[in-house]
Amino acid sequence: MYSEKVMDHFANPRNVGELENANAVGQVGNAKCGDIMKIYMDIENDVVKDVKFKTFGCGAAIATSSMATEMVKGKTVEEALSLTNKAVMEALDGLPAEKVHCSVLAEEAIKAAIDDYKSRTGVSLGDSNSCSGCGVCCHKCNDVDGEK
Question: What is the pTM of this model?
């Protein structure tokens, strides 16, 4: 059911915890499954110097949080913004269909943290809130009420 990489990132998650000096914090959740992800970043000179997470959720949610933080650490803000749920799933050698939403949450948590950083620093948010077209609706691309 789960790949060895998913099991490894679940059993030995990387970058767990909270950054006290975080200048970017993003939290997302999925009411259907109860998963909540919170990402903390220390961004300096447009580079993600450090990143940590706290996730309340299933093994796949923890594994995708762990992998996503590994994938953005040391990257520029723009590179981190380009992280997709598909890339997270591929890095974990796949997820069962019913767990794809976990990778979407990981992508959205990274983007939420960067949106927070940009709002703190006054940088234009650009198009980082755009729908990724993943097929799992988080309603972030819809209007305020989550209706099309």
Answer: 0.81
Q: Assign domain 4-121 to its CATH architecture.
A: Alpha-Beta Complex (3.90)
* Helices (runs of H) and strands (runs of E) counted in the chain: 5, 3
Let me know the angle formed at the C-alpha of 106 by 100 and 108, rounded to the nearest 5 degrees: 105
Give me the tens of pLDDT residue by residue for the chain, a chain 148 residues long. Answer: 899 999 999 999 999 999 999 999 999 997 777 899 999 999 999 999 999 999 999 999 999 999 999 999 999 999 999 999 999 999 999 999 999 988 999 999 999 999 999 999 887 645 444 444 444 444 444 433 333 3
Which residues are part of the catalytic machinery? Answer: 33, 102
Residue 111: which residues within 8 A CB-CB, separation 6 or more?
26, 81, 128, 129
Question: So where are the chain's domains?
Answer: 4-121
Burial of 92 (0-12, 13-18, 19+ CB in 10 A): buried
Distance CA(49)–CA(51), nearest Å, equals: 7
